[in-house]
Amino acid sequence: MEFAAHINAIQQRIEAACARAGRAVGSVTLVAVTKGQPPEVVGEAAKLGLRLFGENKVQEAKAKIPLCPDRLRWHMIGHLQTNKCRDAVELFEMIQSVDSLHLAEEINKRAEQAAKTLPVLLEVSAVGEASKFGYRPEQLLAELSRLNALPRLEIHGLMTVPPWTPDPEKVRPVFREMRELKERCEQILGAPLPHLSMGMTGDFEVAIEEGATMVRIGTALFGERPKAAG
Q: pTM (2 decimals)?
């Protein structure tokens, strides 16, 4: 089955990247990105052993997740608007894309109303691209203590979406800077941050070599996303 072969190939590449970096295979988690994929595809992926899925849009996730197997885990990985926080807190076990104090405060408020504590990652725009969401590193460091003081949020680490390039070696410095930024955050907080979510289909092996603990992969698993009708 072609899909099973894709999963196996990705897992072998993750294992090889871990071996090059001297890391345990279990230190890297695959997040299957299902943006634009129907519930049937998610169900097939679940049958083949995938358990953690990433969605980019709350509205799509809200329609899709109830139609998928109920034992699966879901992370929000796309830009989150404040008016979607209530649904996001309900749907996801982690929000990877917290990119401002204002958003964090709204998630905290909604989590308080839902009587739950929510793990989050802080999204960083490492190279300051105007088209990318995310904290600038210096802004993140300045606001980190205030973010950490929000009682319903648990900061588990950082996330980034690097610039696209056909040569993944060109974004190696971005991934390295993210690892160093995470270490600076740990020093400020006086506690370890377990996760670095970075690396996608085109660059996940380099990301793993530079310390990624989560890689978000869609195209290499599922192929190109289905085109929207109309």
A: 0.95
